[in-house]
Amino acid sequence: MNRSVIALLYGPDQPGLVAKVAGWIHERGGNVLHADQHLDRQENVFFQRVEWAPASNQTPQTESDLFQAMASDELGMSVRMALSDDRPKVAIMVSTADHCFHDLVLRVRAGEWDAEFAGVLSNHDSLRDLSDSYGLPFRSYCVTKEAKTEAEVAQLEWLREEKVELLILARYMQVLSKEFLEQVGCPVINIHHSFLPSFAGAKPYHQAYTRGVKLIGATAHYVTEDLDEGPIIGQDVARVSHRNGPKDLIEKGRDLEKMVLSAAVRRHLQNRVLVYQNKTVVFD
Predict the structure, then answer these.
(1) Under CATH, domain 5-83 is a member of which superfamily?
(2) In this model, does residue 154 exceed pLDDT 70?
(3) What is the pLDDT of residue 201?
(4) b or e along 50-74 (b: 16 or more beta carbons within 10 Å of the residue's beta carbon)?
(5) Residues forming a β-bridge with 253
(6) Taking the domains of the chain in order of start, what are their residue ranges?
(7) CATH of span 89-282
(8) Percent of the chain having pLDDT more than 90?
(9) Which residues, 6 or more positions from 260, have their beta carbon under 8 angstroms from its beta carbon?
(10) Is 228 considered catalytic here?
């Protein structure tokens, strides 16, 4: 398949933006494969994802560079570019739960996503054998209160050495420090086992049981220094009743967590998520 160019852009709305983008691609002999846009009327901000095949005499990388310059300089838009055959390096952070870990690894092995796993980081040794069975490098760190800073320094060093471009917290039950997030140099996606903003923090299923909810949920979001308040990528829910105890909620929640996290990672890897302020626009 020929390589295509993908642009995600946003900025103040103005007349003719769609026509200007399509016209630039057409004038250079390109063919638009997919285009989707959204106008936030409250903020008057225009969002667009456009994917196109450049003309045969144009290289995708050159086309990407030229479009980014045009969209920034002439249209005044913020732009993020990607190529269709990009295979970003991904790392997973885990603790002891393995359901999200299995799901992510098997999807990559099945060829569902264009990604390469660099390895697994953990604060326990529990999943070392599983990681070895998948042929993934595994690193464990002591993340006690006294050793956390030292552990994060070592984790950051490994992530930089491996040139990791996406970090996934697959039920990693530790809070990443502000310093870690400032230095990690790539997006971090987390799965939180509740329907945020409800029941943030620890033991959300127990919180939900105590509150007597009739729906439980899972939320995938980008990680920021504000705990469980980063831009939300995706969410889903399941119905529960008074007959369900905390154990039942946890079991039902595991399926939600796998589905919501995998959907969020897929959309990120396909360059369908555009972050604006503390929200996301997720293109179909």
Answers:
(1) ACT domain (3.30.70.260)
(2) yes
(3) 65
(4) bbbbbeeeeebeebbeebbeebeee
(5) none
(6) 5-83, 89-282
(7) 3.40.50.170
(8) 80
(9) 191, 218, 219, 220, 234, 235, 236
(10) yes
